Sequence to fold (216 residues):
Amino acid sequence: MTTLELNPDFIIADEQELRGLFAPTHDLAVQKCRNSLGEHAQAFIRRSPFLCIGSQGPDGRADVSPRGDPPGFVTILDDRTLAIPDRPGNNRLDTLSNIIVNPTVGLLFIIPGFEDTLRVNGRATLTRDPALLESMAVAGRAPKLAIVVTISEVFLHCAKAFRRSRLWSAEHFQDRSEMPSLIKMILDDTTGAPTDKDEMQRMNDGLEEDYRRSMY
Fold:
Protein backbone atom coordinates (compact mmCIF):
# COMPACT_ATOMS: atom_id res chain seq x y z
CA MET A 1 0.00 0.00 0.00
CA THR A 2 1.35 3.42 -1.00
CA THR A 3 1.98 5.84 1.87
CA LEU A 4 -0.35 8.84 1.72
CA GLU A 5 1.31 12.26 1.77
CA LEU A 6 -1.02 14.96 3.10
CA ASN A 7 -1.09 18.27 1.25
CA PRO A 8 0.41 20.76 3.76
CA ASP A 9 -1.84 23.54 2.38
CA PHE A 10 -4.84 21.89 4.00
CA ILE A 11 -3.39 20.88 7.36
CA ILE A 12 -5.04 22.60 10.32
CA ALA A 13 -2.29 23.55 12.74
CA ASP A 14 -3.79 26.05 15.21
CA GLU A 15 -6.94 26.25 17.29
CA GLN A 16 -8.11 29.56 15.87
CA GLU A 17 -8.19 28.09 12.36
CA LEU A 18 -9.94 24.99 13.71
CA ARG A 19 -12.69 26.91 15.50
CA GLY A 20 -13.20 29.07 12.44
CA LEU A 21 -14.59 26.01 10.66
CA PHE A 22 -17.38 25.49 13.21
CA ALA A 23 -20.21 27.40 14.82
CA PRO A 24 -19.63 28.56 18.43
CA THR A 25 -20.08 25.96 21.15
CA HIS A 26 -23.64 25.84 22.48
CA ASP A 27 -23.89 27.28 26.00
CA LEU A 28 -25.37 24.05 27.35
CA ALA A 29 -22.43 22.03 26.01
CA VAL A 30 -20.16 24.17 28.17
CA GLN A 31 -22.43 24.33 31.22
CA LYS A 32 -22.97 20.55 31.38
CA CYS A 33 -19.34 19.94 32.40
CA ARG A 34 -18.99 19.31 36.12
CA ASN A 35 -16.12 18.38 38.43
CA SER A 36 -18.13 15.88 40.45
CA LEU A 37 -20.70 13.14 39.89
CA GLY A 38 -24.30 14.24 40.01
CA GLU A 39 -27.31 11.99 40.49
CA HIS A 40 -27.64 11.01 36.83
CA ALA A 41 -23.93 10.43 36.28
CA GLN A 42 -23.84 8.09 39.26
CA ALA A 43 -26.89 6.20 37.98
CA PHE A 44 -25.24 5.90 34.56
CA ILE A 45 -22.06 4.42 36.03
CA ARG A 46 -24.02 1.92 38.14
CA ARG A 47 -25.79 0.66 35.00
CA SER A 48 -22.68 0.48 32.83
CA PRO A 49 -20.97 -2.89 32.21
CA PHE A 50 -18.33 -1.44 29.88
CA LEU A 51 -15.94 1.46 29.55
CA CYS A 52 -12.94 2.52 27.52
CA ILE A 53 -9.99 4.14 29.28
CA GLY A 54 -7.60 6.41 27.43
CA SER A 55 -4.07 6.99 28.71
CA GLN A 56 -0.76 8.35 27.46
CA GLY A 57 2.82 7.24 27.94
CA PRO A 58 5.88 9.41 28.66
CA ASP A 59 6.71 9.57 24.95
CA GLY A 60 3.25 10.90 24.08
CA ARG A 61 2.05 7.54 22.74
CA ALA A 62 -1.70 7.32 23.26
CA ASP A 63 -3.59 4.16 24.16
CA VAL A 64 -7.24 3.19 24.63
CA SER A 65 -8.19 0.00 26.44
CA PRO A 66 -11.59 -1.65 27.11
CA ARG A 67 -12.77 -2.67 30.57
CA GLY A 68 -15.87 -4.76 31.18
CA ASP A 69 -17.68 -6.62 33.95
CA PRO A 70 -21.23 -6.98 35.29
CA PRO A 71 -23.17 -3.67 35.48
CA GLY A 72 -21.94 -1.49 38.31
CA PHE A 73 -18.43 -2.96 38.32
CA VAL A 74 -16.94 0.51 38.74
CA THR A 75 -17.17 1.52 42.40
CA ILE A 76 -18.25 5.06 43.23
CA LEU A 77 -16.13 5.87 46.30
CA ASP A 78 -17.49 9.42 46.55
CA ASP A 79 -18.79 12.06 44.16
CA ARG A 80 -15.27 12.77 42.86
CA THR A 81 -13.64 9.34 43.03
CA LEU A 82 -14.09 6.09 41.11
CA ALA A 83 -12.38 2.72 41.40
CA ILE A 84 -12.01 0.34 38.44
CA PRO A 85 -10.98 -3.29 39.06
CA ASP A 86 -8.15 -4.59 36.89
CA ARG A 87 -9.13 -8.08 35.72
CA PRO A 88 -6.78 -10.67 34.13
CA GLY A 89 -5.67 -9.77 30.61
CA ASN A 90 -2.71 -10.30 28.31
CA ASN A 91 -0.24 -8.69 30.76
CA ARG A 92 0.93 -6.04 28.30
CA LEU A 93 0.03 -3.55 31.08
CA ASP A 94 -0.14 -0.64 28.63
CA THR A 95 -2.70 1.37 30.59
CA LEU A 96 -1.18 0.59 33.99
CA SER A 97 2.36 1.48 32.89
CA ASN A 98 1.11 4.71 31.35
CA ILE A 99 -0.68 5.72 34.56
CA ILE A 100 2.52 5.36 36.59
CA VAL A 101 4.31 7.96 34.46
CA ASN A 102 1.31 10.05 33.36
CA PRO A 103 -1.79 9.79 35.58
CA THR A 104 -4.11 11.73 33.26
CA VAL A 105 -6.88 9.46 31.93
CA GLY A 106 -10.16 9.72 30.06
CA LEU A 107 -13.09 7.31 30.54
CA LEU A 108 -16.03 6.61 28.26
CA PHE A 109 -18.90 4.72 29.92
CA ILE A 110 -21.27 2.74 27.66
CA ILE A 111 -24.58 1.04 28.45
CA PRO A 112 -25.95 -1.53 25.96
CA GLY A 113 -29.03 -0.06 24.29
CA PHE A 114 -28.21 3.52 25.35
CA GLU A 115 -27.12 5.83 22.54
CA ASP A 116 -25.80 8.51 24.89
CA THR A 117 -22.57 7.99 26.83
CA LEU A 118 -20.83 9.41 29.88
CA ARG A 119 -17.36 10.91 29.72
CA VAL A 120 -15.08 11.28 32.74
CA ASN A 121 -11.64 12.87 32.78
CA GLY A 122 -9.27 12.84 35.72
CA ARG A 123 -6.09 11.57 37.32
CA ALA A 124 -5.52 7.92 38.09
CA THR A 125 -3.67 6.08 40.85
CA LEU A 126 -2.97 2.34 41.13
CA THR A 127 -3.75 0.72 44.48
CA ARG A 128 -3.47 -2.72 46.12
CA ASP A 129 -5.66 -1.79 49.09
CA PRO A 130 -6.98 -5.21 50.29
CA ALA A 131 -10.31 -3.90 51.56
CA LEU A 132 -11.09 -2.20 48.25
CA LEU A 133 -9.97 -5.18 46.17
CA GLU A 134 -12.04 -7.64 48.21
CA SER A 135 -15.14 -5.52 47.63
CA MET A 136 -14.56 -5.99 43.88
CA ALA A 137 -14.24 -9.78 43.96
CA VAL A 138 -16.16 -11.80 41.35
CA ALA A 139 -16.55 -15.58 41.62
CA GLY A 140 -14.45 -15.39 44.79
CA ARG A 141 -11.50 -13.78 42.99
CA ALA A 142 -10.35 -10.28 43.84
CA PRO A 143 -8.37 -8.22 41.31
CA LYS A 144 -4.64 -7.73 41.84
CA LEU A 145 -5.09 -3.97 41.81
CA ALA A 146 -7.58 -1.22 41.11
CA ILE A 147 -7.39 2.02 39.15
CA VAL A 148 -8.66 4.87 41.32
CA VAL A 149 -9.67 7.95 39.33
CA THR A 150 -9.98 11.40 40.89
CA ILE A 151 -12.46 13.26 38.69
CA SER A 152 -11.66 16.63 37.18
CA GLU A 153 -14.42 16.69 34.56
CA VAL A 154 -17.60 14.70 33.89
CA PHE A 155 -20.37 15.18 31.34
CA LEU A 156 -22.95 13.30 29.31
CA HIS A 157 -22.28 12.94 25.59
CA CYS A 158 -24.94 13.05 22.88
CA ALA A 159 -26.16 10.08 20.79
CA LYS A 160 -25.04 11.14 17.32
CA ALA A 161 -22.09 8.73 16.98
CA PHE A 162 -24.17 5.74 18.06
CA ARG A 163 -27.03 6.71 15.78
CA ARG A 164 -24.74 7.19 12.82
CA SER A 165 -23.09 3.83 13.43
CA ARG A 166 -26.39 2.05 14.27
CA LEU A 167 -24.38 0.20 16.88
CA TRP A 168 -27.32 -1.29 18.77
CA SER A 169 -29.43 -2.09 15.69
CA ALA A 170 -29.59 -5.88 15.39
CA GLU A 171 -30.30 -5.66 11.68
CA HIS A 172 -26.92 -3.99 11.23
CA PHE A 173 -24.94 -6.53 13.26
CA GLN A 174 -22.17 -8.09 11.17
CA ASP A 175 -21.49 -11.81 10.80
CA ARG A 176 -18.38 -12.62 12.86
CA SER A 177 -17.66 -15.65 10.66
CA GLU A 178 -16.90 -13.34 7.73
CA MET A 179 -13.48 -12.65 9.31
CA PRO A 180 -10.91 -15.12 10.67
CA SER A 181 -10.73 -15.92 14.37
CA LEU A 182 -8.75 -13.63 16.66
CA ILE A 183 -5.90 -16.10 17.10
CA LYS A 184 -5.62 -16.69 13.34
CA MET A 185 -5.48 -12.97 12.57
CA ILE A 186 -2.73 -12.48 15.17
CA LEU A 187 -0.76 -15.44 13.85
CA ASP A 188 -1.19 -14.27 10.24
CA ASP A 189 0.39 -10.96 11.24
CA THR A 190 3.23 -12.51 13.28
CA THR A 191 4.61 -16.05 13.10
CA GLY A 192 2.11 -17.37 10.56
CA ALA A 193 -1.05 -19.39 11.17
CA PRO A 194 -1.06 -23.17 10.60
CA THR A 195 -2.49 -24.26 7.27
CA ASP A 196 -3.95 -27.42 8.79
CA LYS A 197 -7.62 -26.71 9.63
CA ASP A 198 -7.70 -29.18 12.52
CA GLU A 199 -4.64 -27.58 14.11
CA MET A 200 -6.18 -24.13 13.68
CA GLN A 201 -9.40 -25.33 15.27
CA ARG A 202 -7.45 -26.73 18.25
CA MET A 203 -5.87 -23.32 18.71
CA ASN A 204 -9.27 -21.60 18.52
CA ASP A 205 -10.65 -24.05 21.07
CA GLY A 206 -7.63 -23.38 23.28
CA LEU A 207 -8.35 -19.66 23.24
CA GLU A 208 -11.96 -20.26 24.24
CA GLU A 209 -10.80 -22.51 27.07
CA ASP A 210 -8.40 -19.80 28.22
CA TYR A 211 -11.31 -17.35 28.27
CA ARG A 212 -13.28 -19.73 30.49
CA ARG A 213 -10.34 -20.36 32.84
CA SER A 214 -8.94 -16.88 33.23
CA MET A 215 -11.90 -14.50 33.04
CA TYR A 216 -11.31 -13.67 36.72
User: Anything to note?
Assistant: The mean pLDDT is 96. The chain has two domains: 26-165, 174-214.
